[in-house]
Amino acid sequence: MIKDFKTRLWTHFGIMAAIIVGTVFGWLFLRADIKREAAVIFQKRSDLVTRTKTIAQLGVLQKDAEKAKPMMEKMESVLPTMDGISVVKDAYEKIAAEKKVSFNWRFGEEVKSNGKAPGHISLEMVIQGKTTDIIAFLKQAEQEKYYLTIQSVNITNSGSQAVGSVTGILYFK
Question: What is the domain range of residue 18?
Fold first, then answer.
């Protein structure tokens, strides 16, 4: 009976030890798995916060795009295509005829549009006529809808006639 008792006692201790060791290993495994899952949950939550902020910014960007739309349409109409630069020249020649000045221009270096910035071409205009007519031409030319940046103006008088030399940059799509 004592022998049977010792055998049963050691068997129960063995079973209890196996249960404790199994429980400890199971607990360690679950703990490691929980840490991995927590890291995944934290990462997904961070992604969700980032996407939420992006979506919030999208609304602001859409409002900004709506505000900019009329301005962009105006800007698009102001910027001729490279092939449409002759239309700009025709508009300035019409002004020259109205102001009774002779008008000539030469194009210089061309820089193509890169999608983010418009292209541009340098130009030099030579205007001949009375000084007041040249100034009137420049005032009206400056008010044209085309995007022309005037870099320099030089008017030289010789008697009743004057010669104006204008350098600038014309922007295009």
Answer: 1-76
